[in-house]
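Exercise (ungraded).
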Amino acid sequence: MPAPPPSQADAAGAREGEEEHYGPLVLTRIVKEDGRSLIRFDRVDERERA
Amino acid sequence: MSSLRYNELRDEEVAYAVHRQDRTFLPPEDHCPLDPTRPGGPATEIPYPSFEIVVFDNLFPSFEAPMGAAEVVVYTDDHHGSFGGLDPARAEALMWVWRQRYEELGARPDVDYVLIFENRGVEVGTTLHHPHGQIYAFPFLPPVPALELAADARLGGCAPCALLERELAEGSRIVHSSDDVVAYVPFAARWPYETHVVMREHRPSLVACTPGELASLAGALQAVTRGFDRLFHRPFPYMMVVHQAPTSGVGSGHLHVEFYPPLRTATKLKYLAGCEQGAGTFIMDVLPEDSAAALAEAIAVEHA
């Protein structure tokens, strides 16, 4: 099952950032409560199917 | 905070990251920090109920800003998966993730070299079974890539290009090939089933590859890892390391991926013992031509 888009995800404990595109991927960056960075990578085609 | 000490006798840096002594070690499956955070379940490193690929700062970094970085790359939200078992489109996406991280980390002024790797299996020290790799962004050029640059100088050009030409001419150690990528056990392998997956064209890094080449690379890496698993009918431990150009601008490079698997039989490990550690000379029990023949056969099964 394709992953839900980040905007629907439960990002509790994190600030959700702007989306970026890189090749076939959509990146969503967040900063966790302890200050560490996390980047979520989704394939554009999967996002469109979701 | 990690720190560096220069080892005069060996002319190399040693990184001290003593906080790693307390890192998560083989947790029970229901407490895997790389699983998604499912509704009602424990919070993990990844605050999503499902995901494709996620990269985050290592909680126990070997390197960290302003002297490099250490990241974790989680390939899938399936705890029981493996790199070789990923859907091919996911593996291809992973090549783009590696490319993006190489490009972004390599652009930092405190990063001279970006090392992308995976340790698979407790035999090579993995502490979490969930399919994942790591990225170390070094604040200096480490010894192995420095040796590769020295080989370029010694051979008067790109060493991987020259070695690939030799392997193609000889042919006896090639285990898999496509229009874009060749995989072989090198002439002087230091591990029983050491395998190099090399781009046919001279590509310094993932950034220089075409989308088709990235797809071919993913396919070749998966073919090799699945072949490994068939060799001894068991999950095959390995260290998988992506070799690319330094990002400091010093020297060139030729994108290739090296596998260092420690098994010499289904139940026996190759140890780096007195001779390997004390003299730096590897003593091998298996000829590369023989291990290449076995691996090529194991890879070919699924392509027959």
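Further reading is listed at the end of the chapter. For now, observe: Residues 1-15 of chain A have pLDDT under 50 and may be disordered. The radius of gyration of chain A is 11 Å.
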